Structures are given as structure tokens and as C-alpha cells.
Amino acid sequence: MGSHPHDLPMPVTAAGREGLDALLRAPRSSVVALDFDGTLAEIVPDPDQARAHAGALPALAALAPEVAHVAVITGRPAGVAVRYGGFAGVAGLEHLVVLGHYGAERWDAVTGIVQAPAEHPGVAAVRAELPGFLDSIGAWQGTWIEEKGRALAVHTRRAADPEAAFAALREPLAELAARHGLMVEPGRAVLELRPPGMDKGVALTEFLAETGAEAVLYAGDDLGDLAAYSAVEKRRAEGLPGLLVCSGSAEVPELASRADLVVPGPAAVVGFLADLAAALRA
To answer: Which residue would you say has higher pLDDT here, 135 or 209?
Structure first.
């Protein structure tokens, strides 16, 4: 097979090439699913300052009308991802869906409404207990708690030794989470305490079933995206073509090693989406 149109990069795996070909061949029955932080937005020290890459909205607005659905799947609350992404009221994104809190929340651009179930009681319990718990175990200086609505995250990126702080906190936080019926999801210098049962793989699998997709592209950058990768791999084994894209390769080799295509961070992801849109319009 020769180079793809508009100089699209060639996936390194046969399954990835098949997935890209299927998307190019039948875009109107394809789903493009994307993580937010680290994929559409650069990772920043303060997550409240994260914003979509400047080229993300133009690329998505060009791509969305050419495919069946574009979904952003994120651990953030859906409304926060919509705000930080600037997704509301953008021409071309009328059918964008944001699956927040790993699919527990859903925002549809067509209605502008967030659908959300009640909060897990364990999250409220951990919210009250976590600051004192970190103090009691002599948590490393520079760690801090991010309030995520239906989850709580302990960040170590600002600690003097982020990796050592992460390693020291992992087991105590897992025990705290288990005590309240929660689980711990590790990420890039972050440990997130959240309810079990929903992950990006579950969210993506349910969305693919709902939409009847015949091909899927998923792009992510972190350990939380491994579940979505597994979901795509499972659907590929069942005959649904799929393309796995990894944003950056240095921090999460587990993801990069399973990807069909690795691109160096959000700017390159956005460039790829823009090139894909151009190829589909050609």
C-alpha cells in the first residue's frame, strides 16, 4: 500500500493501516474518539490552566462533519472539559459528544446539557478524609489534591521528587480508596481515586455500540487510555477496524508500545486530525 493522501503518516502496524484505510474509505460510519489532557491539550502543572491546543477547534470543526461522530473521552467532569476545550457553540461541532468522568457524565453539543448520575458516597467520604490522611502519612511536600467532582486526584508533579512521591503514595491511597469502595487510577504524576465500573474502555465500547460504528480511531496519552486501547483491540478481534494513536512517547511507554501510530504530543495530534479532515474532504 502506498502513502496515504495529504501525507498522512503511515501506521506502523498492519491492523493500524487497516483501521486508517477503513476510516478513509467509509468516514460517515466511523467514530473518532479522543482523550483531552495530553492529547488535545498540553499537560500543564496546574490542571485548571489546561486548555485545548489553539489548532484543536479548527481541526475538529473541519473533521467532525466528515465522520459519523467525534467523542472526547476524559476523566474530567464533562462540563469542565467543554469549558477548557471551548467546544460549546462551535460551527461544525454540532454532534460532538463529551463523555466525562470516564463516561459517567455525558454532554451533547446538540442539546448543551450534561447528563449525570448521583455521586458515589465513597467520593464524599474520601473528600473529607484525604487532607488529614495525607498529613498523617507524612505525604511528600509539593503533593496536592485536585477536586474532580466525581473523583479526587493527588498530584505529585510539583514535588521535589515526583516519582518517589508517587511510589510512596500509591499503596496508602489504594488502601484508603478500597476502604470506601473506590479504586485508584494511576497516571502521569497523579493518582486518581474514583468509583469502579467506569473507565475509558467501557465508555468507548458503549459509544461504539450505540452509534453502530464500522471503524474507530482512538487517541490518548496516559495510563487511563490503556482501557480504551484494550477496547479497540477487542473490537478489532471481532472485525471492527481501528487505529490507535499515542500522543507523545516519553512518559508512558506502555501506551506507545501498543499504538499503531505515535505522534509527538498535542500539536502533532491536532496536525494529524487537520490532515485527516483534508484527506476526507479531498
So the answer is: 209
Element (H, E) at 110: none
CA distances to 96, 170, 264 from 64, in Å: 7, 39, 23
Which residue in this structure is represented by grid cell 501506521?
11
Q: Rounded to two decimals, what is the model's pTM? A: 0.86
8 A C-beta contact, residue 244 and residue 230: no
Q: Are 219 and 245 in contact (CB under 8 A)?
A: yes
In this structure, the strands spanning 30-34 and 69-73 are parallel
Identity of the amino acid at 38: G
Query: Measured between alpha carbons, how far is 146 from 198 in angstroms, rounded to an integer?
Result: 19
C-alpha 151/C-alpha 194 separation (Å) is 5
Q: Which residues are catalytic?
A: 35
d(CA 45, CA 47): 6
The overall average pLDDT reported for the chain is: 93
Quick check: 215 and 23 in contact, CB under 8 A?
yes
Question: What is the pairing mode between strands 190-194 and 215-220?
Answer: unpaired
Cell output for 148 = 474532580
Under DSSP, is residue 50 helix (H, G, I), strand (E, B) or coil? coil
Q: Of 261, 232, 226, 233, which Cα lies nearest the Cα of 247? A: 261
Grid coordinates representing 15 are: 491492523
Question: Residue for cell digits 480508596?
Answer: 177
3-state secondary structure of 138: coil
Query: How many helices and strands (H and E) does the chain possess?
Result: 9, 12
- 9-39 pLDDT, tens digit each: 999 999 999 999 999 999 999 999 999 999 9
